[in-house]
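Re: folding output
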Amino acid sequence: MGILFPTSAQNPCDCFIKGVVLDKDNRQPIPGAAVFIKELQKGTLTDANGNYRIDQLCQGQYTVVSSILGYKEVSQSVKLVHTAEQNVLLTEDDIHLQDVNVTAQRTTALNSQAVSQLEGKALDQTRGQSLGDALRNVTGVTTLQTGSSIAKPVIHGMHSNRVLILNNGIRQEGQQWGSEHAPEIDPFVASRITVIKGAAGVRFGSDAIGGVILVEPAPLPTAKAVHGELNLVGFTNGRQGVASLQTEGGFGKGFGWRVQGTLKRGGNIRTPRYFLDNTGIAEQNFSASLGYRSSRIHSELYYSRFATRLGIFSGSHIGSLSDLQAVLEQGEPMIKSGFSYAINRPYQQTAHDLLKWKTDWKPASGGTWSLTLARQFDDRMEYDLHRPRNDSLAALNRPELRFRLTTYTGDLIFEHKPVANRLTGSVGVSGFYQFNIMNGRPLIPNFRTYNGGIFWIEKLRLNRWEYEAGLRYDYRHMQVFRYENRVLEKPLFVFQNFSGTVGTMYSMSDQWTTRFNAGTSWRAPNVSELFSDGVHHGAAAYELGDRTLQPEMAFNLSLNTEYTGKRVQAELGLFYNTIRDYIYLKPQAEPVLTIRGAFPAFKYTQTDALYAGLDASLTALLLPKLSGTSKLSLLHVQDQILNQPIVMTPPNRWENSLRYDLGEWAGLQDVFVGAGNLWVARQNRVPANSDFVPPPPAYSLWNLTAGFAIPVSEKRQIDVGLTVTNLFNTVYRDYLNRFRYYADDPGRNASVRLKWTF
């Protein structure tokens, strides 16, 4: 598992507890047992040999709790000075299984892949931000922005359809092909966000070429006590407020429940020099879960709804070619305003519903069967700057574009029982059926897609070595419905191919682990890449597809090494990926003038691409209470056919921070202060005359962080977090912001976060 060292929430403590969990009667290891620290609610699951390890602990007295369905829960007191080894013997128990509350979570990534996780206090420091913004703390992850309120995660330079997002175990299916179509996910539902860097198509699907993001809620409780948490967040820039409440409990006899909701409201964002007109946001989200757990069966029903209304910067919609050229040359928006909460045209309105049912069954013969069924409905409406003219429905404020996407998914997976306590593995089948209904001016046609896949993964553990191998086959059938010269056409596209992976993990010591992974993956062109033809209002661009595009084929290599010592924690990851028939949006020489205004033009095209680079992070305990963190991301992207760079790839970046932990101070607990700097280079690797304006200059942003806990009772406290980003109100433009053609990026922003756990 990769190690994440967040800038604003780094804990300098470097102790760890390890051991093995065994059956008391036969002394056989117990894989999948939950082991956690009661005082910290931090834990892990045992591996195939029953081993566990919990890192980044401070010195002190802890209660180690071990549990798994079918065994009595065991609590042991451990005094931790530097390291501790605590073995556990569990006794079978079939009577009080409903009282077992497993709080650890297992990651479904291959052990040979680089993995980073955002959880605990590090995740708390991102509360109130979108999913894309929250993941900026992860080394190797940046964002593709459209203005100030829309951010999509980018892993090693790849995004959108090359990065698969799993929302509570379900592949997120929305209009993710659009650069301004941010994930329709409320990060407050997650107790952990996991980033798998590199191709993960064998386990998760053929289109996971760049990586996978797992948004994972905590397991449902079963104890009858009701508890929860309230998060309140305020931001000065945009005068944005966020409130999220989650409460959960159990009914006894193995039943548990959870209800969660979030409200967000913000107004116009301010750059250091002016407000960005019409950049407000309004969001209302809700989720609910109901589950049952016994010794053999674990079943859960989950529903979530994400609803948002986003203002699109009005200065990005320009009426004439001369005005567009003037904005590009002067670098100043034609439309400026003051602060307002109003969200007017142009704007987006999106609602995403997810209904999921999952059941795990453990037969007496061993192994685990998992069945997951889900339905998603994504309703996206995009409104132009101007209302429709000469239209009887104009008074109804009809959207210019509306996409209604319905997706049904199903997965059946069998994990066989360990063979000789060394060999573990799984085999599974998956499929989805999807159809899209589009209304309004043409951009993409209606379509219907069937996809089926089957995979097999095995893992072998031999002493300090672990080997992995997997193979997957996917078949995709897509029927498109479009009118050409008033004649209905139904072109059919069929794509199929194999994905494969091999990897190894070597634990040189308890502190040092190295991972190597090699894999192939592929991605079929989506309907937007094949058939886009018109103005994409949210992106303020004219986009043109190509129906002759072929599937992408990727070959990925990655090498990752991690060291966890008493004073130093370090990670280095290298990757080398080639993609044959790589599809990207290429800027065209001239903008396009339409009846709705003048827009930069882009066309989907193909080439052979190389993505190579490194991620590095280092955290050192400089003094007893002072720690420093440095994170570096380097990326090299090349068009191998034309022997030149490719546009719209992330520039190199370097982030450094210091954190001082005071501990208890003035009646407060867990007091810390920190400062950090993010330096982003100018993207010099851009083909000549390939974009409408040159890449913006390099920039350097400073930030401050602080946090503390206010005790309110013996077992309750209020956590407070303070953050100031872009401390010196620096004027800058990010190369991956689609609206950098028109305006600066946001200025100084101070935030306050309050978390009350009850």
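--- second protein (sequence, then structure) ---
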Amino acid sequence: MDATQAIMETVDRLRQRRTAALVLELDLTEGLSEGPPSDPLGALLSMRRARLTDVLSGLRRARTDPRVKGLVVKIGGNPIGLGMVQELRTAVLKLRAAGKRTVAFAETFGEFGAGTVPYYLASAFEKVYLQPSGDVGLTGIALEQRFVRDALAKAGVEYQLGQRHEYKTAANMFTQNRMTEPHRESTARIAESVTEQITAGIAEARSLEPQRVRELIDQGPFLGPEAVEAGLVDALKYRDEVYAEVVEDGAHLMYVSRYAKTALAKRLPHPGENVIALVHGTGAIRLGRSGRSPLGGGGAMGSDTICAALRSARRDDKVKAIVFRVDSPGGSYVASDAIWREVVLARQAGKPVIISMGDVAASGGYFVAMGADVIVAQPGTLTGSIGVFGGKPVVGELLGKLGVVTEAVSEGANAGMFSPVREFSDAQWARVNSWLDRIYDDFVGKVAQGRGLTRERTHELARGRVWTGADAREAGLVDELGGVEDALSLARKKAGLPKDTQVRTYPRMHPLERLRPPESSEDRSAALARVRLEAWGPIARLAGELGLPTYGPLMLPGWWTIR
């Protein structure tokens, strides 16, 4: 065979592949990443995970692509948050309604453990297959809270913390030894609301009565044969049997994210074309740049990074609307306020700003969202938590037990006010409470202004209470229920743009390019992250080890993720 013939045969094979039937594939073993990585380390750690926006884009395109015959998804491994699961369920149900075959496969839903949310995702598919040795851990929703006040007291640690108001329970684990009535009330409603959503979704997708699904939840977990008998699973099959059934007639397998990127390469925005900006804000909110600490912890939403991204989108004449994707439990009040300001400035510049909430957008996460034109959340998104807490651990007794002696020289009556060695004085505690009152008043006032509510009504909805997206919509804190695709469609509509208007993601540079120093604060690379060591002093490390959030006063309680 000469070289020309070999080339011709290769070209022919590629041509056949381009026209062959496709079965899209998605492996959720490693979970999904919410948005683009904010730093080189994050890029490295997320290499094996598909990106949610790529998956949603690919499934949207697949609905009208005659080459795509179906979708097979492996569910299991790393847990996925409820909000993200609901986004995937919606995309799968639309693909299913378009006549495409949808198959979910799992080795197990919990391995005789909790697997309610993974099974909830699987129930959206036309067929659900389970490995014969697997289980279905459909057991409902449990939200647990640990209280360490008494344990810390034995060690000689006491927390002086103030909160606004009774539902702001993030600090309760340090100040209480059991749930307060408001704490129990709000937590019970979250569990009830999420259970209602999961029950309704499974019932509709599996053609079961809601009451029957509720009964099954109380009877779980299920062994494989029991799950088949109950109508939760269609059959018990190994992976090879599932794929032999799904991939027929010479169809090619292709990962959804690869399929989406192939389509994107064919339709890049023209330099002069109008676009929608998509800004991702993920993680606890802090001052400075987004990124992560090599000493531990996940990603963080840095105010410098997000403000610069919003500012860049606002100043780009080709950007006609902005979708701000928020997935954050909150953090620094000052950082949240800086981001809020950029949202307001974008609106004042005549660019609609649409918020798309992920698994959680509460406390500081709600603060950065409340100034937008429209807020879109999933029914299971945790949001609200309009409140504040602050204070410090007092470890003087503990240090004394360890034989540690602390001496200080200071100038100023309150110079050592934030030292963890001693308690606040009465005058200092009064200043702490004035600070908390000011933040809460500012928070409530800006919610009232942004949402068109009276301060009295806003206070009723605030007081630190956490809401599901479904309940928040009923209360007026959220405008619509949906995902990032719905937010993008709404942005196009508000900006008067056609449905095929392209999306430009901010920040726009590759993570490795973010290492170069910027020329100024207006340089586009100033919006980008740096890998750096955090200034973690001994007390910050101690607070982190004890579970106290280290990113500021606007935080959600530690159980916020429902998986």
